[in-house]
Write a structure and sequence with these properties.
alpha+beta; 15 strands; single chain; elongated
């Protein structure tokens, strides 16, 4: 029997993971028709059907699943071989695609990216600002950066920051003409800059002080889905905002914003780089993780 080419096996693995012809073709850098032809050729060589296809979905057959589970380790071994040879040639190469919020990628750049690029000139970094909770595997990313509480449980998470506090802030001009604000419940009588989550739901502001905790669906005419824009709106006196400290620390330092309800704040465990636990770690990802650890990112 003629052996499948390495390219055909790569196409098979990509389609098995994406379960979508168009997306798998994009990630493989080919047309959907070319991918379909390659798959048919592979099935003809193996004399077995690897995928169940309908007009709306693609799924592995029992034979396809068994083939995937046996072929995937071979791909990972080949990646190891290529990575080792690359390193031996001192042309450490590869590309890392990482997504995250604008503040998360800004922090990553400040702490590690530029030092990493100086150390490994052969590795390309593709950093994509994404304020949604994207599926990093489905969208072809090697890793993402999110607050720990937002990371799926089946991911490996590596810390890149300390705790991140959520602060309630407003401009001095707004507070001078606004009602008193010493308890979270007072927000019900204020203009608040509200946030809509990626799924469409309005974000309820969370507060804690000792054993007391509450969440409020605050009032407000302005709703945004971008934290940086919310901080800008608060600076312009449009109301009270509730944001991660990363987005407001510069405005606090310059006095454009001040903190309110300081005794009533909650904190996230912090920002973490995350990636699938069952995905082979490439040479580029390995050295990127090493750089994070060596620079003692906290």
């Amino acid at each position: 029997m003629k052996r499948p080419s390495w390219n055909e096996l790569q196409i098979f693995i990509t389609l098995a993971e994406q379960k979508n012809f168009r997306r798998a073709a994009e990630l493989s850098g080919i047309k959907p028709s070319t991918l379909s032809h390659a798959l048919k050729a592979l099935e003809a060589q193996l004399q077995v059907t690897l995928f169940n296809r309908t007009t709306r979905s693609v799924s592995l057959t029992a034979a396809g699943k068994a083939f995937y589970e046996q072929v995937l380790p071979l791909q990972q071994q080949m990646d190891d071989v290529l990575g080792n040879i690359t390193a031996m040639g001192k042309t450490q190469g590869g590309t890392l695609r990482i997504n995250g919020s604008d503040a998360a990628l800004s922090l990553l750049s400040e702490k590690v990216v530029y030092s990493f690029m100086d150390r490994y000139p052969g590795i390309e970094l593709d950093l994509v600002v994404d304020n949604k909770f994207s599926d990093i595997v489905g969208e072809g990313f090697d890793a993402g950066i999110r607050l720990y509480e937002d990371i799926p449980q089946d991911m490996v998470a590596v810390r890149i920051s300390g705790e991140v506090r959520f602060l309630t802030v407003a401009s001095p001009d707004y507070l001078r003409q606004a009602p008193p604000l010493s308890l979270p419940q007072h927000l019900l009588h204020h203009r608040c800059i509200r946030q809509r989550l990626p799924g469409g739901k309005r974000y309820a502001w969370e507060f804690a002080k000792g054993d007391d905790a509450l969440s409020l669906d605050v009032p407000g005419r302005l709703m945004l889905n971008n934290s940086a824009l919310m901080a800008d709106a608060a600076c312009l006196g449009q109301g009270v905002a509730y944001l991660p400290e990363l987005y407001v620390q510069q405005h606090l330092a310059t006095g454009r914003l001040v903190k309110v309800l300081e005794e009533w704040n909650v904190a996230s465990q912090g920002l973490f780089l995350y990636f699938p636990h069952n995905r082979h770690i490439s040479f580029a990802m390995n050295v990127f993780l090493e750089c994070i650890r060596e620079l003692h990112i906290r």
